[in-house]
Amino acid sequence: MKNPPLPSYEQYKKDIIGNDIKWPLLTVKSCETGLLSLLPKTTKRGWPWSEEVLPSDYSSTIRWPKITVVSPSYNQGKYFEETIRSILLQNYPNLEYIIFDGGSNDETSEVINKYRNFVSFARSEKDRGQSHAINKGFSLASGEILCWLNSDDYFTEGALKKVAKTFMETGAQFIYGDSYNLKNEKLYPSISPIILDRYLSIPGLAQPSVFWSSSIHQPIWEELNCTMDFELWMRIAKGVKKKYIHEFLSIARVHDEAKTYSSDEKMKEKWKEDHERQWNVYGPIKNWDKLNRENKYLQRIFTVIPYLKSFF
Amino acid sequence: MIQRLLDIFYRDAKSKLKLYNRFGGYFNYKKMLLSQQHMEKFSENLAPILSDEMGLPVYFLTGKKYLYQTLFCIYSLRKCSTQKFHFVLVDDGSFDKALIDRVRRQIPGSRIILADEIAMNIEAKIPMEKYSYLHKKRHEYPHIKKLTDIHTSSQHEWKIVIDSDMLFWSEPKEFIEWINQPKQPIFMLDCEESYGYSRALMSELTGAKLYDLLNVGVIGLRSSTIDWDKLEMWSKVLEEREGTSYYLEQALSAMLIGDQPSTTLSRASYIVNPSKEQVEDGEGCLHHYVDLSKEHYFKVAWKRVAGV
User: Fold this and answer.
1) A192 belongs to a structural domain
2) Taking CB atoms and an 8 Å limit, are A60 and B47 in contact across chains?
């Protein structure tokens, strides 16, 4: 088995911050009354427009672990404000939020400028694609817990608190939860499978609901366009303590431009290319059908266990 | 061989089954243990609490296994009171560099009385040659260290020692008043008498009518008045006549206090073995989580203190 080509974060960091920017970056400023009153006004209602997680929900007796969220963006301006607000309005007391835009030519730059003063770092420049933007973001990260949230997805109310609490309670290094898919203004639940090392090669996790400890982080394989998330999970989640939060932590938008759901022929080709790249490095997965079958039955058993427990 | 098999397949199994049933079945018991693990892990993230050298001294016997409970107890006290406290952590024999660093980080300003210092104090006050039974008990029954290892220290004349498995829910005024001006012993009241020895024998040895229901969750004594000769003799006679008991330290404390005037903390506010409802309502100002209340302690109480 070969190793995937991974970039050096040291070099990225050096190129990005130069001599002008202090590292670690400043955390998102917190406000006793919550950020809602400080963020740009909006006429939209509900989460994350007129609602926020109350700052008093975060006990001051706890040293909340630092969470770094990276948002890569490219021409998703119509959704991006919701993404940014869903992160900031968590009012999480120890948050680092980094945005890397790939030089969008829609309303993205306006949105970023509106929120620039509230985030730890935001930059718009041409890049080599989504994975490159995510890697640039993580090269600046100083959080204990890491995740990325694409510019068309958003967190549910209180998601970061649930994740931090689970990290603190269980000491898990890899945490994942459920997600909703939002299609035509309707929410469809996407329940994550319970993952075991043996079945890590089977995709199934909802990317925006996955969080991991910086102690296991590795750069993303930039040549991959579509499968970079589960290729990363395969590398970092193996052999570490994993914990499943049976709650909806994020909402993933299903639209024509979304890579995961696009029926575009070009996108299908990109998925194929990614799989081939992975095969070239990791080789074919042995007994693929058998693994899938096993996993399917296991997931059924996992679904039944909570009901069985309730009888005892 | 048969004896061992009997132990494994009958006695051990039976006692485990009994334990599971007491805590509502196997799954509930395991859930409680998982919650305990969560509490332990979570304690690492509690924000630092300053211990003020000029504050009111509060003693804990603690170590590797119980520090997380000590931390939660201290945090709950800080949450309920603006009073400044000086926390003194007495090594139960398990302190190492990592634990000392952790205490320095999470309770800056606290004093740790380490094993070496304890050994010197003990050698000075209750030497092995004269108090061999107390020394023997120290090795086989760690609870007695709450008397021997804490009250041989000469730092404070009066010392209030509190158990780690307790949480404060509102300002403990009587407790604070006592530490401010200790004049007589103080203790909290149990939900049922647990001395482990007959009252007749205890009274015979002390020549005093003992207090009912003394619980050592909170106990304040004057170190200089502890009669170590009597303690040596009492512990020996109690065990010779009525065998060993988990509650020996509680019995000895009750005997040390005897019938001298003492402050008893109200049972309504300082609750031993609180019910689920009492925990959920945060009733009273202090809970001592013994016996079945451990379940509510691990599943509910600490989360409320931490605010999660």
Assistant:
1) yes
2) yes
- A271-299 confidence digits (pLDDT tens): 889 988 988 898 888 888 898 899 889 88
Domain containing B108: what range? Answer: 48-306
**Chain A contact set for B45 (CB, 8 A):** 62-65, 168
Q: Which residues in chain A have their CB less than 8 angstroms from residue B25's CB?
A: 312
CA–CA dist B125, B152 (Å, integer): 6
A64 → chain B, closest CA residue: B45
pLDDT for A311 equals 62
Please tell me what DSSP assigns to residue B46.
Answer: B
Among A residues 159-178, those touching chain B with beta carbons less than 8 Å apart: 161, 165, 168-171
Specify the DSSP class assigned to residue B225: G
Is B96 among the domain residues? yes
Rg from Cα positions in chain A: 19
pLDDT at res. B184: 97
Chain B residues with CB under 8 Å of A62 CB are: 45-47, 306-308
**Is B46 in contact with A61 (Cβ distance < 8 A)?**
yes
Query: Residue B78 falls within a domain, yes or no?
Result: yes
Please tell me the total count of domains within chain A: 1
Q: Which of A59, A63, A170 sits opposite B307 (nearest CB)?
A: A59
| B92 has pLDDT over 60 | yes
Predicted interface score ipTM higher than 0.85:
no
Place of tokens 């940014």: A84
Residue A3 lies in a domain: no
The list of chain A residues with pLDDT below 70 reads 1, 256-263, 309-312
Task: Output the pLDDT for position B278.
Answer: 96
pLDDT tens profile B166-204: 999 999 999 999 999 999 999 999 999 999 999 999 999
Residue B70 resides in a domain:
yes
Of A202, A219, A150, A207, give the one whose Cα is nearest residue A176. A207
Per-residue pLDDT at A260:
62
Closest CA to B89 of B51, B54, B48: B51
- Tell me what pLDDT residue A300 has: 87
The CATH number of residue B207's host domain is 3.90.550
Taking the CA of residue B42 and the nearest CA in chain A, the distance in Å comes to 5
The pLDDT of residue A271: 87
Q: What is the CATH number of the domain that holds A244?
A: 3.90.550.10
Question: What's the gap in Å between the CA of B164 and the closest CA on chain A?
Answer: 18
Residue B277 lies in a domain: yes
Please indicate, yes or no, if residue A177 is contained in any of the structural domains: yes
A36 inside domain: yes
* Tokens 């990325």, residue located: A148
> Which structural domain, as residue segments, surrounds residue A83?
9-309
Q: Which helix (H) or strand (E) holds B113?
A: strand B111-113
- Count how many domains chain B has: 1
Peptide bond into B185 cis (omega under 30): no
What average pLDDT is seen over chain B?
A: 95
**A312: nearest CB among B25, B42, B79:** B25
Q: What percent of chain B has pLDDT over 90?
A: 92
Neighbour tally for A36: CB within 10 Å: 19
Amino acid symbol at B94: S
Question: Within the 188-247 window of chain A, which residues sit less than 8 Å (CB to CB) from chain B?
Answer: none
Tell me A284's DSSP state.
P
